[in-house]
Amino acid sequence: MNAKFIIFALSLISFFAQASNEKAYQPTEADYSEGEKWVWKYKGVTPSNEIRAQGTDTKQIVSKSGTLGMLTGKGITTLKVLTKPNNSTTARYYWPLYVGKTWVFEEHWESEDGTKGSTIQNAKVVSFKDEKVEAGTYKAYTIEYTGKITNSRGYSADTQDIHLYAPTLKTFIKLTQRQKGYLYVEELIEYTN
Predict the structure, then answer these.
(1) DSSP assignment of 130-144, as one string?
(2) Do 186 and 41 meet the contact criterion of CB atoms below 8 Å apart?
(3) 159 and 119 Cβ atoms separated by less than 8 Å
(4) DSSP 8-state assignment for residue 166
(5) Each residue of 90-141: pLDDT tens digit?
(6) 3-state secondary structure of 159
(7) Is residue 103 part of a domain?
(8) How far does the chain reach from its first CA to its final CA, in angstroms?
């Protein structure tokens, strides 16, 4: 066998072994900087092509009285609160993330009208590679979630969500959700730091 081919093959094996060993940890307060900003566009469409949701969502790191926080449409939340270590084994992101990791995401919630519900999904990190969105190309984990959503009004639906989580941006860059034919897509269109 050709020595150059063997060296090339070993280099490829080493590259893929390193890529598969990469891990992403929960962002800390120190990972954010004032002025950092993320803008997503979102759209939700029914099977009959009726648009149920459409618009943009913005998050920005701001300083208030010398304390950094994240400004959203709901107000400012301090980074200390946002980056509090989450060691839950049923969280949306069960840290650290790495290719092949699996867990069960479980969320119990109550909507503004008092309806109570649950989302329970099997999660799996299936890849870590370059992903292109409108804001640019970023290394991202693809996490697939499959399961069910139910609520106190008798609603029940199978769900499939795909999150593209980019560690360098500390958030998802694309989210695709399917539920009873309803398709919701949220994609990062701008990032500044």
Answers:
(1) EEEETTEEEEEEEEE
(2) yes
(3) yes
(4) E
(5) 999 999 999 999 999 999 999 889 999 999 999 999 999 999 999 999 999 9
(6) strand
(7) yes
(8) 50
Is residue 10 situated within a structural domain? no
79 Cβ partners below 8 Å, 6+ apart? 29, 32, 61, 67, 68, 69, 70
DSSP β-ladder status, 102-110 and 116-133: antiparallel
Please tell me the pTM assigned to this model. 0.86
pLDDT in tens, 34-56: 999 999 999 999 999 999 999 99
pLDDT band at 21 (very low <50, low <70, confident <90, very high): confident
Beta sheet of 171-179, edge-to-edge order: 75-78, 67-72, 51-64, 37-45, 182-192, 171-179, 156-166, 136-151, 116-133, 102-110
Q: What is the CATH number of the domain that holds 47?
A: 2.40.360.20
**CA-CA distance, 78 to 85, in Å (whole number)?**
14
